[in-house]
Amino acid sequence: MSLADSDPFVDPVDTVGDHDYTEGWTLPVGRSASLTLATDSLIVLDEDFTRRETRNCCGLLPSKAKTTQAIPFFNILWAELSDFDINVQYAKPTAKNVVRVAAVNYLVEKPQRSYAQSWVTKLLDRAYGESQRKKRIKVLINPFGGSGSAQKWYLRDIEPIFAAARCEIDVERTLYQGHAVEIAEKLDIEAYDVIASCSGDGLPHEVFNGLGKKKDATKALSKVAVAQLPCGTGNAMSWNLNGTSSTSIAALCIVKGIRTPLDLTSITQGDRRTLSFLSQSLGIVAEVDLGTEHLRWMGSARFTYGFLVRVVRKTVYPCDLWVKIDIPTKGAIREHYRKELTNHAPVKERRDSNDTEDPALPELQYGSIASPLPSTFTNIPSDNVGNFYAGNMALMAPNANFFPATLPSDGHLDLITVGGDISRHSAIKCFLAVENGGFFDLPQVNYRKISGYRIIPRGQKGGYISIDGERVPFEGFQAEVHRGLGTVLSKTGHLYEADGVVPKTG
């Protein structure tokens, strides 16, 4: 789904004539106003709007005032009928990437009250659709997130939207690295529907792993949705699921989010087993991300600088690599993605069936890094790897759509390998293509869908391996995908908010 396909946050008042009014769902309110449920919006018609407009031409001539306001159903937070009036609260755009709680309020005459109650019920049905109302949300705030601004952003941008939507909120601040793991591990999963982290991608990683440590891990990961309120330097989770890094818009997206199964990947390294929800990398991406931490003062330019330095050196990262390849060609991957565009199957069908009664994490089908090499794994020559990158989400940053064919719960990781010995011109072309959307089709880019792999660095004294953006020891590890093991909230219930690949025509 393209980010440009729709923008539910923009008031479509200028195109109100295009809306399909539903006969029988107009509620008269007062002498000169009405509320109508159209196809995609609540239409507020009020003749008094003209009296509130300013006058132009030094006040001599009246301005051309609108009498209609359209509020997208997606932006409706709540509606209720009190003793005398009807109140509708919604998220109103106040700037390009900001929404604030606003309300429309009208008197309802006594003879209209029975009909008005039915009308409110219909409005909330339209406003929430598949999404759960009044979500019970455990909010985790990383006080160091956003250079220390996470707390301020929560109080200003997020809490009012949750409150207006009648969500039950329980707030806790994380005190140290790994604290979110402990909180999630001890969480009463019957008391919450969502764990939402005011942070970067680090806290969601901890939350998934905390839920994975519970005795009933499979149930916990299925029942409690993990969400991100973007308050960090890396907000990939919010970009993929909400299409934004705005804290207020992300809050609205969580209120309206549809429960969506998410593939999780078990990573075994040494005697440790962890869960990955985002990506794993070895090579230039890991080096550029983790190896330029000392250049944070450069902002996003540090990534460009780090990339160019390694391109000039034509750095390679030799390794031994074995992969469980599921879809080997780009043409077949395009077709796989195309089928998913219209496949809105029920949530239960998007999870692997668990035939055992063991509620813990699923057993490892391929064993761990210490197990014999699985016979279904194929060796991929990797003496001159420049980039090994496995992704479970499309966007690693707002303009970095590395994995345009990835899907939330198709049971696959998307694997990219690029040689480190390609020409500098080709390497720079690959770098630029990530932003312009041509990366997938480049012949230098090997793109496969896989369900497991084993990778062991070779001939290097040290280096960087990144799991969900976090540094792990520079040693071999094995990965295995678990289809639909986790749960998140998304707009569609089955796709990311990113431009995807579709079959070529002609």
Automatic annotation (TrEMBL):
Residues 132-271 form the DAGKc domain. Pfam families: DAGK_cat, DUF7493. Transmembrane segments: none annotated. GO terms for molecular function: lipid kinase activity; phosphotransferase activity, alcohol group as acceptor. InterPro entries: ATP-NAD_kinase_N, Diacylglycerol_kinase_cat_dom, DUF7493, Lipid_Phosphate_FormReg, NAD/diacylglycerol_kinase_sf. PROSITE patterns: DAGK. One of its GO terms (cellular component) is membrane. One of its GO terms (biological process) is sphingosine biosynthetic process. SMART domains: DAGKc. PANTHER family: ACYLGLYCEROL KINASE, MITOCHONDRIAL, SPHINGOSINE KINASE. This is DAGKc domain-containing protein. The lineage of its organism: Eukaryota, Fungi, Dikarya, Ascomycota, Pezizomycotina.
